[in-house]
Write a structure and sequence with these properties.
Elements: E1 2-7, E2 10-16, E3 19-24, E4 27-32, E5 38-51, E6 54-69, E7 72-83, H1 86-125
Length: about 130
């Protein structure tokens, strides 16, 4: 069977697999070949992909949707971070989140400085006065 995992950045995993396990808010369940069609929401959870009796990757998923039918699984997620173990994927997720928070903080600070400078320049130019 085939699985495709995508985010807004594009396809991050696309391959033939033996089976996969999904963990979502309701619990954990496995999807094997010829499984009944399924649609499931994944607010926060993970997918464990198994190929040739070896666990390939864990993907931590945030705000995702799983659709499975005709031995094709499609997972669309807002965020999908992978690792060789669940702990490694979780650590990578924390690193990415921390990095994004720092970028946002710097960006907000830059906008504040620019806005202050703009107001100062408008005042100095006496714009809007007759």
């Amino acid at each position: 069977m085939k699985i495709v995992i995508s985010t807004h950045k594009g396809v991050i995993y696309n391959d033939e697999i033996e089976y996969f396990v999904i963990k979502n808010d309701e619990g954990e369940f496995a999807i094997l070949k010829d499984h009944t069609p399924v649609i499931s929401v994944i607010s926060s959870g993970y997918v464990k992909i198994v190929r040739e009796a070896n666990i390939d990757y864990y993907y931590i998923l945030i705000n995702g949707l799983l659709e499975f039918s005709n031995n094709n699984a499609t997972i669309l997620a807002q965020e999908a971070i992978n690792g060789e173990t669940y702990e490694a994927a979780k650590k990578e997720l924390e690193r990415v989140r921390t990095e994004r928070i720092e970028i946002i903080k710097r960006s907000n600070t830059d906008y504040t400085k620019l806005e202050h400078e703009l107001r100062k320049n408008i005042k100095a130019s006496k714009a809007g006065r007759l």
